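User: Could you walk me through two proteins back to back? I'd like the raw sequence and the C-alpha cells for each, with a short line separating them so I can tell where one ends and the next begins.

Assistant: Of course. Protein one, sequence then structure:
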Amino acid sequence: MNSSGLSELEQLCRDSVNAGVKTLCETGVWPRPPAARRIRPGYDFPQYIFQNIKEVDAVVDLLASDSKIQELYFHQSWGPDSWQLYDYWMRLLLRVLYETEGELISTNIFRKWFKKFVRELFSDTASWRSIDTVTGLNLCGRQLKLDQGTVLTSVPKGNPGSALLGQEQYSTSGWQAGGLDKATLMTTAIIKKRDYAGLEWPPPDLFDAGMRHSAVMKAVRLIKSGVPRLHCHATAHLSSFPLGDAITYCNWEGALEVNEKEAVLERADFRLVRSLWREIMKTQYEGHEGTLTSLNVDRIDTALSRFCSTYDRKSAWMDRITDLTIALESLFGQGVGDELRHRISLRAAWLLSSEQELNQDRGKVTNMMYRAIRTMYDIRSCRVHGGIPKRTELIRWIETLSGAKYDPLHRGEAENLALEAARGIVRKAIIACMTLGKLSPKGPCWPLPKDFDEEIVIPGQHKAWQKASGIIKSKG
C-alpha cells in the first residue's frame, strides 16, 4: 500500500480500536480492576461483542478491497469472505489492551502494535511451529539439530509452553508437559500464505512435522534402550497476530510408567541419530527415494512399525512381544516355509550373536539369543491362539528373556526387563538389515539370499556377515 493508504488504514484502525474499547466499557468488560488489567488474550470476551461496529467494518472493508490481501487470505472458490480479517483486527485490539492502563489508549502503544500489524498482515509467508515433548529421554547436551527446520532440545526451565511457543502463544490449555518430560522436538516451517488461503491451518502436506518427529523417535529407539515417548503436542502460528489459537493436547503416546527406564542420549550419539533420522526420512517419508529398494523399504517399515508399537503403554507386555516377533519375521522370514520358529530363531541368532556366544554344530545354534527368540515365539503362539499360560511357564519365559531370577514382588519390573531384552534383539536386527540392505547382492546383503541357510555352516562366513552388517567393526 502507498503512504496515503497506510495513513488511511492507521486512522481507521485507531478509530476501530477506540470503538472496540468503548463497546467493552459499555458491556462492563473494561476497564479492568488494577489487579487484573493484564488480560489473557482470547479468554476474556467473546468475539461476537464486536459485530456490527461500523468502525471495525470500515477497517475490514478497506483491507478486503486490497488485491494483495485478497490473494493472501481469500480462497478463490469462496469469494471475499472476511472472517479472517475480523480475527486479525481483534488480535490487534487484544495486543493494545494487553499493555494499556484503564480506558485511555496510549498513542505509542497503538503505533507500536499497528506497525507490527501491518507488517505481518501483508507478509507473504507465515511461520508455524510443531512441538512435541518427550518423556523418558534425558538429552546430555543442549540440543541436537537435525536440519534447518527440526531440532531436539532439552526442555527449558520454567513454563515449557511459554518458552516454546514464545510471546505469540494464545492458548496452552491441555499442555501439561513437565516432570519426566526432559526433551522437546520442535519443527519450524515457513509457508506461503497463498498456499493455504482461506484455511485456518496449513494443509497437512505442507507441514510434515509429525513424520519428522516420528522419525527422530525411531532413530533414538534404534540406538538406545529405555522407553522414550512423545507426550504433549502443540502446533502454533508464530505471529503476534495468529489466525488461530495454538492447538495443544497431551498423551500422544503417553507418559513413562513406574517400572520403565529413561533413555540417555549422549552427545557422542548425536551423529548416529542424525544419520539414522535422514535414512528413515528418505526411505519411509519421501516416496522410497533412499538407498533401499521399494520392497525392502516395506519390510523395514513393517519391522520399525512393529518395533515402535511396543512403546505403546496401553498394550500388555506379551502383546508387545508378539509385535516384536512379527518384526523379526519381516527381516528374516524370506523364503521360510516349514519350521518358522526354528529357522527365524536360527537366522537371527547366527547373524546377531558374537563368535564367543555362538555354539555351532551343522547349522544348529544353541545360545541365549536363539533360546530368547524361540521363547518370543512361544509367547506369540500363546497370545495368538488365546492360551492362558501357567504361572511356571510365565516365570520361565520372563527369566529366559530377562536373564534374571524372577521376583514375584517385582513382577512389573521383571516384565519390563524381559520386554526390553526382546526389544534389544529386534533393535540390533533392524540396524544390521538396514546396513546390509545398502550392499551389493554379490556378497553379504539383505534381504537374505536364497542360499543363506547353507552359508551358515561355511567357515568364515559368520565374521564376514557381521563385518558387512556393522555388528563388528572392520579394523582400520
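----
Protein two, same layout:
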Amino acid sequence: MVGCGYWGKNLVRVFSQLRALQMICEADPARLARFQAEYPQARASGSYEAALSDPKVQAIALATPAETHAALGRQALQAGKDLFIEKPLALDYQAGEGLVELARRQGAILMVGHLLEYHPAIVELKNLIARGELGSLNYLYSNRLNLGKVRREENILWSFAPHDIAVLLRLVGAMPLEVSASDAAYLQSDIADVTVTHLRFAQNIRGHIFVSWLHPYKEQKLVVVGSRKMAVFDDVAREGKLKIYDKRIEWVDEQPRPKQVAETTLYLPTGEPLKLECEHFLECIQERRRPLTDGASGLRVLKVLETAQRSLGRGGAPIALEEAAE
C-alpha cells in the first residue's frame, strides 16, 4: 500500500482485514510510525523502491496525489507488479494510455479505483436499467457536494467528478457525443471550486454532474429519469439508499399529466463498497482476469474529464468527443 493519507488509510484498513497487506509505504515518517504501530504484521518503509524490489509484493495499490499516479504507476508496472490505482488514472489521457499499454505488454492487472461502481445500489441500478424496469433513459444527474476537502493540486472537476462520470458512463453504457462544462473559482484564482458538466449522449439521453467543495452540507445523490420509472440513489442516507419512483408523464386528452403509482425503497446488501472493490482486485490478480474498472474504463473517464476541462478553457463551449480526440 503506497500512500496512507486521507483515502489511503482506508485502503490500508481494508487490505489488512482481507489479510493481503504485505507492506505499508509512506513518505511522512510520523504517519508511517503510526501505521507501523497499528499494523505490525506489515513491513513499513518510507521507500517506494523497497516495495518495488520486494519479491513478496505481488501488487501495488497507489493512493498518492493524482499528479503522481502516472509516474509511480509506470514504475510499479515496470517492476512486474499488478496495479490498483486510485482515481483518476492520470491527469492526462496520453499518460493514462501509456499506463494501459504498459500493463498490456507486461501482462499485468491494472484496476482503477472507481469505487461507486462496486456500490450495491449502483450495481442494482445498472441491473434495473438493463432489465428495462425504468423504461428508456431520458436523463441522469448527480450532485457531489461538500465543504472541503479543498485541493491545491487539481480542481474540483478532477477531484470529485471522476466517480460520477464513471457511474454515468456505466449506466448509459456508452460514451457521450458531446461535453460542455462551466466553473467558478472563489478560494484560489486558478483552481475551480464549483463545476457543472453536461453530457449529451445518443438517443437524446442527457446527463449533468454538479460538484463543489464549497457547499454548506454534504450531498451525494444520483437521479435517473426513465420513460416508465425514476430512481434516486442517495449515498448520504443511512439506509434505504436506493428508491424507485413509479412516476411518469402520461398524455390524457392531449394534455400532459403527472402520474404516480408507487414509491419503493430497496434495501440492499450492506457490504462496504470499498471492501467489495478491494476483494474484486484481489480476485482479479489471483484469477488473472480483467477488472470491472480496468484501464480502458479509466481511459473513458479521462477522455470525458479532459474534454470537460477543454470546455472550461473555452468558456463552456460544447466539444464533440471526435474533436477532443484530434
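The mean pLDDT is 94.

Let me know if you want the two compared in more detail.
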